[in-house]
Amino acid sequence: MISGSSIVQSLLSGLLEGGNYALYSLGLAFVFGILRIINLAHGEVVVLGGYVAYWMLVRYGVGPVLSMPLAAAAGGALGWLTYRVFLRRVREAPELNTLILTFGVGIFLTNLFLQLWTGDLRSVEVDWLQRPLSLGPIRASVGELAAFGFSVAAVLGLQAFLHRTRAGKAIRVTAIDRDSAALAGIDVERVDRGAFAIGGLLAGIAGPVLGILANVSPGVGGPLTVKAFILTVLAGVGSISGLIAAGMILGVGEALTVTFLSSSYRELFGFTLFLGILLARPSGLFGRRI
Questions:
Q1: Tens of pLDDT, residues 102-114
Q2: 93-137: pLDDT as tens digits
Q3: Would you say the C-alpha torsion 249, 250, 254, 257 has a positive or negative sign?
């Protein structure tokens, strides 16, 4: 029989994991909402940020918090380069072209990571982040709580950037109507390039969190992209703040599935929820109906 404390522990773990899901998905959701491009290389950019944090710790003793700016810069540079070299040429082409291109970039990065760093699992282990905190039978680590707080702050920070800064407003206007934005004097090509770079930056900054809470390896990118896309659909296109709630729903659902059924059903819950949302509310839980 499952005890009450086990259920509470599952709820807490699911909520914390849901916050991390929101951070892992933030870059993909942003690019999809602004550019209508599904970046299938998103997970590999997150993995790149994780490798940056790992090697900064191993080689130079720099902790994951201090390595986040470098991880973000690496992800942003890769995003900018991907758009500049590949996507700019097919921006107005059918969506299938961008899917194929980003899928190819993802495969290339996976194999590049494999050649550079082998397939070994690596984690960013820092003693103070691994320290456990407990309230009776309920436990969580400092790293889990810190990652959750950082994830929420990142989502809210992006929301504030889009609504309160001139650059953010230009991005939103371009996403709504490119022709009107161009007539208003906005360089839409520059906005597109910058938005994709920001998506890469958001993916890169999630890498150190992935390294702290899980493992980094070349094969992690694909499943991360799938999870991010599920969460983007669940929240609704354009709903950045909705990622937090959607992540918590997904995280708690997976945790309870493991508690009451089996860990083998964990991923099945996410895909079932994904299909249910597509059938019942294609605009997502927090997206606007068009």
A1: 999 999 999 999 9
A2: 667 788 889 999 999 999 999 999 999 999 998 888 888 888 777
A3: positive
pLDDT digits (tens, 9 = 90+) for 46-71: 999 999 999 999 999 999 999 999 99
Query: First vs last Cα of the chain: how many Å apart?
Result: 47
Q: Can you tell me which residue has the tokens 């969190």?
A: 209
CA distance 62 to 55: 9
| Residue given tokens 């940020």 in the structure block | 49
The token pair at 48 is 């790149």
DSSP string, 193-239: HHHHHHHHHHHHHHHHHHHHHS-B-GGGHHHHHHHHHHHHHHH-TT-
Torsion of Cα atoms, 221 then 222 then 225 then 229, to 10°: -170
Sign of CA dihedral 17, 27, 113, 130: negative
Per-residue pLDDT at 150 exceeds 70: yes
Identify the bridge partners of residue 133 per DSSP, sorted by sequence position: 140
Return d(Cα 84, Cα 197) in angstroms, integer: 10
Predicted pLDDT at 91: 67
| Residue 56 φ then ψ, to 5° | -65, -35
